[in-house]
Write a structure and sequence with these properties.
Strands 3, 4, 5, 6, 7, 8 and 9 form a seven-stranded mixed β-sheet that branches. This protein has a two-stranded antiparallel ribbon with strand order 1-2. Strands 10-11 form a two-stranded antiparallel sheet. It has about 575 residues and is α+β, with helices and mostly antiparallel strands. It has three domains: about 10-165 and about 280-435, Butyryl-CoA Dehydrogenase, subunit A, domain 3; about 170-280, Butyryl-CoA Dehydrogenase, subunit A, domain 2 (Beta Barrel); about 440-565, Acyl-CoA dehydrogenase, C-terminal domain (Four Helix Bundle (Hemerythrin (Met), subunit A), Up-down Bundle). It has 17 helices and eleven strands. Helix 14 (about 455-465) runs antiparallel to helix 15 (about 475-495). It holds the Pfam family Acyl-CoA_dh_M. Its cofactor is FAD.
């Protein structure tokens, strides 16, 4: 049977990154849990062995249960009756298998029943699950909402809610509304304090809520009467056991059919405040969204892997004009670019997750003791890197997932348009990744300040100082020229002092920066493991060099006076 972890050697490579030693040291607090929990690691080697074994179990469940169920779940989907959601039968089997294997609450401390895993191996599990069924991946990976409750909730909330998630209960984040999609400042779900019952009451409607009939919900609601912006919003915890929320309907979607996307009606629903009032959007949702965006990046990489696998398998077996179509340059060109995008995107995903791991671990330690000056500096460094890399990882990987799914169907030809092939499901599932948890356009908005303030360029220049193999040196030299073009374009736009022009070319600058970052990461990977990455490094450099040149040509020749022709 297929194992979605051991069958992909690139995953084990990324797991065994040198940064993991520091991550484990911080996460395990120098392995203090070994005295209290028999399943806690003794040392770094033991921790890595534990990650490897859990990933192998996840890969096995994915290959033997989740993947075989995927087509049935896609066809059946969830049902809504009497205000409740009933999962597809295959989804129930999937959830049962994951719960029995103890794969819930993975990142939570052991005292709550979690595995105390860093974000990186958990993200790897999310990628593996998504490669088999992206819709189920949504349901299972929403467990990471508990990270936000752990970070901002109080100890009593920790003790009541976290063990439930670790035991297998599900979560959702209830943010968007019919009139508030990306513009979360417009959220109007009303939160009113009930003096008699000493609780908050929620009233209103939420829309596009993934897994909306979950056991525990994190809810963004307007707690400050008379306000209309983000400063009047707070975050609340709603427990399904309390009642008061009904599912009005499940959305009829293009893809991710196994994942129920719900419209919810709150009717005097009892809830409790998470954290402080007025910080719901400004602080808590931003943290929640960053975690979710990393999750969508993982889902996107999983879909890219699935598309590549399907395209490769079909190209090897399909014969035309007396030979397998993989032998035709037009086909192997597509497959090589698909693999290069997959490898580059995965490199960016796990570089980002490692940055997140270090700054989050240090942040958690800061609640136990005062950080040393060196630790504070380390936290500041990695928080900035995580914040700058997350919109790159989410935006670029979601676009690559869509591109790879498109090419997968193209490789299948007419068969790719038929419903009996998996590539059409992958294509439909991939489409949402560049939309939810912030569209690619919004990822550009989040990232552009790191272009204009020189942060991305500084990181790229730092990457240029990292030694690489002799085979990679010519690629690296070309990459320096690509970075020079990014710098020239950036300077030209900044000198114009025209906000509309900056907004107009922001996507192009964003992609140029991302291309350079990913190319560097892939060169570093090819230096360490040429057998896995050298081909992709060459292919990706050729691809991104052309992309950077395209954007450079446009920006260098573009005159702001031409904007009038683009306004519709």
């Amino acid at each position: 049977m297929a194992n979605y972890y051991t069958d992909i050697p690139e995953l084990k490579y990324h797991l065994n990154n040198p940064m993991m030693e520091r991550i484990c040291e911080l996460k395990e607090r120098n392995y203090r849990d070994k005295e209290e929990f028999d399943y806690a690691p003794q040392d770094y080697a033991d921790a890595m062995d534990s990650f490897d074994k859990v990933l192998e179990i996840t890969g096995e469940i994915t290959g033997e249960i989740i993947a075989p169920n995927a087509e049935g779940v896609d066809e059946e989907g969830p049902h809504c009756a009497n205000g409740r959601v009933e999962y597809a039968s295959g989804t129930k089997q999937n959830l049962d298998a994951m719960v029995k294997a103890g794969l819930n609450g993975m990142t939570m401390p052991r005292r709550f029943g979690g595995l105390n895993f860093p974000i990186t191996p958990y993200t790897m599990c999310a990628e593996i699950v998504a490669a088999a069924d992206a819709g189920f991946g949504n349901i299972w990976s929403l467990q990471d909402c508990i990270e936000t409750l752990y970070e901002f909730g109080n100890e009593d909330q920790h003790n009541r809610f976290i063990p439930r998630i670790c035991a297998g209960e599900t979560m959702s984040m209830d943010l968007t509304e019919p009139d508030a999609g990306s513009d979360l400042q417009s959220v109007m779900l009303k939160a009113t304090f009930d003096e008699k019952e000493n609780c908050w009451r929620l009233n209103g409607v939420k829309r596009f809520i993934t897994n909306g009939d979950a056991d525990l919900h994190l809810v963004l609601a307007r707690s400050e009467e008379g306000t209309k912006d983000g400063r009047g919003l707070s975050m609340f915890i709603y427990d399904k056991k309390q009642g008061g929320v009904d599912v009005r309907r499940i959305e009829n979607k293009l893809g991710i059919h196994g994942s129920p996307t719900c419209e919810l009606v709150y009717k005097n629903a009892k809830a409790e405040l998470c954290g402080d009032r007025k910080l719901g959007l400004i602080k808590y949702v931003m943290a929640l969204m960053n975690g979710a965006r990393l999750g969508i990046a993982a889902q996107s990489v999983g879909l890219s892997q699935a598309a590549y696998n399907e395209g490769m398998a079909y190209a090897k077996e399909r014969k035309q004009f007396g030979k397998a179509i993989i032998d035709f340059p037009a086909v192997y060109d597509m497959l090589s670019i698909m693999k290069a995008k997959l490898d580059a995107g995965r490199a960016l995903l796990y570089q980002t997750s490692r940055y997140v791991d270090i700054y989050k671990a240090l942040d958690d330690i800061s609640h136990e003791r005062k950080l040393t000056p060196e630790e504070r500096q380390e936290q500041k460094k990695y928080a900035k890197l995580a914040d700058s890399f997350t919109p790159l990882a989410k935006g670029m990987n979601s676009e690559y997932a869509n591109q790879n799914a498109y090419d997968c169907i193209q490789i299948h030809g007419g068969s790719g348009f038929m419903l009996e092939y998996a590539c059409q499901r992958i294509y439909r599932d991939a489409r949402i990744t560049s939309i939810y948890e912030g569209t690619t356009q919004l990822q550009t908005v989040a990232a552009i300040r790191y272009v204009t303030n020189g942060s991305y360029l500084a990181t790229i220049r730092e990457f240029e100082t990292i030694p690489c193999s002799a085979e990679m040196e010519p690629l690296k030299a070309r990459l320096v020229e690509m970075a020079n073009k990014l710098e020239a374009c950036m300077n030209k736009v900044k000198e114009a002092q025209n906000q509309e022009l900056l907004d107009f070319v922001a996507r192009r600058l964003y992609e140029m920066a991302a291309d350079c970052v990913m190319a560097h990461l892939l060169i570093q990977d090819a230096t360490k493991a040429p057998e896995l990455f050298s081909k992709s490094a060459v292919v990706y450099l050729n691809y991104t060099e052309a992309e950077v040149e395209k954007h450079n040509s446009f920006i260098e020749k573009f005159n702001a006076d031409e904007l009038v022709n683009y306004r519709q």
